[in-house]
């Protein structure tokens, strides 16, 4: 396990360059196994979730070459083996091998995925969609065996605009016979990024980024080059940090449109922002104002930025309410923030109140999930004194070079192995 030690309360200035999107890259890599030739993906973040996917590719016998942000994947000769528990449960996104392997081999055996404990995280919508395409799903002690004599295009209406189900069904449909229509599809930027990747290989997908996606099955997918879209959650995390302790902190290599809902909230709290074509420069205001947050599917306020935003709201004047509508258990960071001096309380499992501003003081605290860890990291950076974050491995799942990036803009932060 790792720990992060921060000597806080330093103004941050300079530039932070944003990496490729975790949630896009973790779908693009499983998608690569669908290709009948080698693919090259650039701007891949160097984070532990990607290492875990690399392990699965190696286990299946793919030829993988990684150098800095480039990954080349040749899946021509992969074998359809049961993906074992130890590697399937390392991350959530292992479930994208369900759609990809089913599409390629008409059969997949894989364990229920892992990932942060932020709610029940069922995959019923993925499975229902596979069944609509003619697959048979069997489950035995968390081992899923999904088979099909033939995968056929189908009309699938998602009960909820699930990111995972939309992508998994898109993967399954790419080589299915006929046309699949996914309605009430998720619209997140990574849906568009993955559809573009598949289209670059010769897939026929239209409508990605809208609530109806149409996929005409094809037989062969060829080699291509593709770039991972900038990570709008990493972008947003640093934007929130800059709004509390930034002095002209420039966040570059971004797509400002992807963080529109956050920009609007940061305007409400009073952050001073200059928005460029591919950057945002942010300075803290004299006084932050309280606001209310309700998480929603894209383009609404992202659940993945709710926990970092909670830390900002501990510094805002007045009472803020957070309504988390996507996950049932995404407030574990609040208890740790309270240890540092914050005043937060749960109104229900999915609703919290934060009263600010409160002075935060460095403490030994524990991360319990990725974005919760980001929330605690921001707290450590703004607190007076020394903060030690245990279980810092969570943060390494999703934020590339975070210690380097923050040190570069003036933070006093260190990552060390513990235990
Ligand atoms: N849901 C179902 N059944 C399903 C699928 C989802 O009930 O079959 C429910 C979930 O329980 C949840 C809601 O639908 O209440 C949203 O789930 P979704 O499927 O959209 O989420 P996901 O695909 O499991 C991805 C990201 C999450 C991010 C969410 C929402 C990956 C690997 N994970 O999860 O990212 O919070 O979309 O945007 O892409 C993170 O990066 O920290 C993270 C948790």
What does this molecule look like?
With 419 residues, the protein is an alpha/beta fold. Helix content is 32%, strand content 28%. The protein is built from 14 helices and 24 strands. The strands form six sheets. Strands 17, 18, 19, 20 and 21 form a five-stranded mixed beta sheet that branches. A four-stranded mixed beta sheet has the order 22-23-1-24. A four-stranded mixed beta sheet has the order 2-14-16-15. The longest helix is centred in the middle third of the chain and has 14 residues, at 232-245. The mean pLDDT is 97. Uridine-diphosphate-2(N-acetylglucosaminyl) butyric acid (EPU) binds next to helix 1, helix 5, helix 6 and helix 12.
> Over all CA atoms, what is the radius of gyration?
21 Å
Strand content: 25-35%
Overall, the morphology is: globular
- The low-confidence parts are none
Distance between the termini: 6 Å
Number of helices: 14
Helix content, binned percent: 25-40%
Number of strands: 24
How many strands, which pairing sense, and closed or not: the largest β-sheet?
5 strands, mixed
Bound molecule types: uridine-diphosphate-2(N-acetylglucosaminyl) butyric acid
Quaternary form: single chain
**SS class:** alpha/beta
Mean pLDDT: 97
Outline of the structure:
By secondary structure, this protein is of the alpha/beta class. Helix content is 32%, strand content 28%. The strands form 6 sheets. Strands 17, 18, 19, 20 and 21 form a 5-stranded mixed beta sheet that branches. A 4-stranded mixed beta sheet has the order 22-23-1-24. Strands 2-14-16-15 form a 4-stranded mixed beta sheet.
């Amino acid at each position: 396990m790792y720990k992060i030690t921060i000597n806080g309360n330093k103004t941050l200035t300079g530039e932070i360059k944003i990496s490729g999107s975790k949630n896009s890259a973790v779908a693009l890599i499983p998608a690569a196994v669908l290709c009948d030739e080698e693919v090259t993906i650039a701007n891949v973040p160097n984070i532990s979730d990607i290492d875990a996917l690399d392990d699965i590719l190696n286990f299946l016998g793919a030829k993988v070459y990684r150098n800095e942000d480039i990954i080349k994947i040749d899946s021509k000769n992969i074998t359809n083996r049961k993906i074992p528990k130890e590697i399937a449960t390392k991350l959530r996104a292992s479930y994208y091998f369900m759609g990809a392997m089913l599409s390629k081999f008409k059969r997949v055996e894989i364990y229920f995925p892992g990932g942060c404990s932020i709610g029940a995280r069922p995959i019923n919508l993925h499975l229902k969609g596979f069944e609509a395409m003619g697959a048979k799903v069997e489950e035995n002690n968390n081992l899923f065996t999904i088979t099909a004599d033939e995968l056929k295009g189908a009309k699938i209406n998602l009960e909820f605009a699930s990111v995972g189900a939309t992508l998994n069904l898109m993967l399954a449909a790419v080589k299915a016979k006929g046309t699949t229509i996914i309605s009430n599809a998720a619209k997140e930027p990574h849906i568009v990024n993955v559809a573009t990747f598949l289209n670059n290989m010769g897939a026929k997908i239209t409508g990605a980024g809208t609530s109806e996606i149409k996929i005409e099955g094809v037989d062969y997918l060829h080699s291509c080059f593709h770039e991972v879209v900038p990570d709008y959650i990493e972008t947003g995390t640093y934007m929130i940090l800059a709004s509390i302790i930034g002095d002209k902190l420039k966040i570059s290599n971004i797509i400002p449109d992807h963080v529109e809902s956050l920009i609007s909230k940061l305007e409400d709290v009073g952050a001073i922002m200059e928005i460029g074509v591919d950057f945002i420069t942010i300075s803290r205001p004299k006084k932050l104002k309280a606001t209310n947050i309700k998480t929603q599917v894209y383009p609404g306020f992202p659940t993945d930025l709710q926990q970092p935003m909670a830390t900002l709201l501990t510094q805002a004047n007045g009472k803020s309410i957070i309504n988390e509508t996507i996950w049932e258990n995404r407030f574990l960071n609040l208890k740790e923030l309270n240890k540092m001096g914050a005043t937060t309380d749960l109104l229900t499992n999915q609703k919290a109140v934060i009263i600010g501003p409160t002075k935060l003081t460095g403490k030994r605290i524990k991360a319990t999930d990725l974005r919760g860890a980001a929330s605690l990291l921001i707290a450590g950076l703004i607190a007076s004194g020394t903060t030690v974050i245990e279980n810092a491995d969570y943060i390494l799942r999703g934020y590339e070079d975070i210690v380097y990036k923050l040190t570069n803009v003036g933070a006093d932060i260190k990552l060390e192995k513990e235990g």
